[in-house]
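Morning run. Coffee first, then this:
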Amino acid sequence: MSADPAPASARAPVIAVDGPVAAGKGTLARRLAAQFGFAYLDTGALYRAVGSKVLRAGGDPADAGAATAAAAGLAEADLKAPDLRSEAVGLAASKVAAIPGVRAALLDYQRSYAARPPGGQAGAILDGRDIGTVVCPDARVKLFVTARDEVRAARRHKELIDKGENATYDQILADLRRRDAQDQARETAPLKPAGDAHLLDTSDLDIEAAVAAAAEIVAAALKP
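And here it is:
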């Protein structure tokens, strides 16, 4: 399915929310979607699903052939894999996301979702690593959500401990920094803020304050 060729002004508004892991962008994007009545797509889950699919098949997520084949054959059931939020799958997702064939296989799906939000909703919010720079460069609003490394690692550590997983803060911090380096250094769609993105540092904000700050930016942009 190809993306909608209509001019940006004639399409449903799209909000792009980008940023590194554990910056709070997913929670923020979901809350904004509920507040504004927009459809929500966690694009990171697509890459996690590809990484998980490769791992379950006993493959190497860095193998371009295996990862691209997994992306091309991605099914709805793959998005519900029980290990999708594990650290191992997160690292696999960062590896498959660096493969051009994987990104190409998933790009059209993301653009079609943004152009035609499901359920007839008024607009779409997509969160990921390259929404504002590659997937939806003409998004009505672009947010780049970030936080200090130590804060993000602490958040991720608490999330995993609350799920009953064995995890140490030091290991999570090291993995987080490794994923950041991989995401920022990849040749295809590296992690970086779009030139016209609003930067939102959530290091010292609770979720309510972060949502309020983001909602103010979105509301201003959506005014007729």
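The radius of gyration is 17 Å. Good start to the day.
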